């Protein structure tokens, strides 16, 4: 069973805005998830750092989900997270993609669902949300 963190449902993030997420990673973390989208069924970005899960070690797996249909997985091998550490991640919403800012690294993930607003955010797994801010 994956622990479910807080769920936000009316963020109203539009292109040009960014969401910064801060929290603590569990000392025995296997993986954690952050979802950004329109609602729980339309996820523009499923962000899943895996310490050791589903055959991946120290890899960030990103995807999109439309109702029950997952897209193609996108993998990042830069892995700036540590078990028991603090994670700070900023998601910048653009017209055609989302820029993910990590410590010392950034990458973009396409807005495959063409969402004009990101209203939904949640966290799951071995991560405790400490703060959420957007601008």
UniProtKB/TrEMBL annotation:
<dbReference type="InterPro" id="IPR044156">
    <property type="entry name" value="Galectin-like"/>
</dbReference>
<keyword id="KW-0430">Lectin</keyword>
<dbReference type="GO" id="GO:0043236">
    <property type="term" value="F:laminin binding"/>
</dbReference>
<dbReference type="InterPro" id="IPR001079">
    <property type="entry name" value="Galectin_CRD"/>
</dbReference>
<feature type="domain" description="Galectin">
    <location>
        <begin position="5"/>
        <end position="135"/>
    </location>
</feature>
<dbReference type="GO" id="GO:0005615">
    <property type="term" value="C:extracellular space"/>
</dbReference>
<dbReference type="InterPro" id="IPR013320">
    <property type="entry name" value="ConA-like_dom_sf"/>
</dbReference>
<dbReference type="Pfam" id="PF00337">
    <property type="entry name" value="Gal-bind_lectin"/>
</dbReference>
<protein>
    <recommendedName>
        <fullName>Galectin</fullName>
    </recommendedName>
</protein>
<dbReference type="GO" id="GO:0030395">
    <property type="term" value="F:lactose binding"/>
</dbReference>
């Amino acid at each position: 069973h994956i622990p479910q963190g807080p769920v936000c449902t009316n963020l109203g993030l539009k292109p040009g805005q960014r969401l910064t997420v801060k929290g603590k990673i569990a000392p025995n973390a296997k993986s954690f998830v952050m979802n950004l989208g329109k609602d729980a069924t339309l996820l523009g970005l499923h962000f899943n750092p895996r310490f050791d899960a589903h055959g991946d070690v120290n890899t960030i797996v990103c995807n999109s989900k439309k109702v029950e249909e997952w897209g193609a997985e996108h993998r990042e091998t830069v892995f700036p997270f540590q078990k028991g550490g603090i994670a700070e991640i900023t998601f910048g919403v653009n017209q055609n993609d989302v820029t993910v800012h990590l410590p010392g690294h950034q990458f973009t993930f396409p807005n495959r669902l063409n969402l004009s607003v990101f209203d939904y955010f949640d966290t799951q797994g071995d991560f405790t949300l400490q703060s959420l801010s957007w601008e």
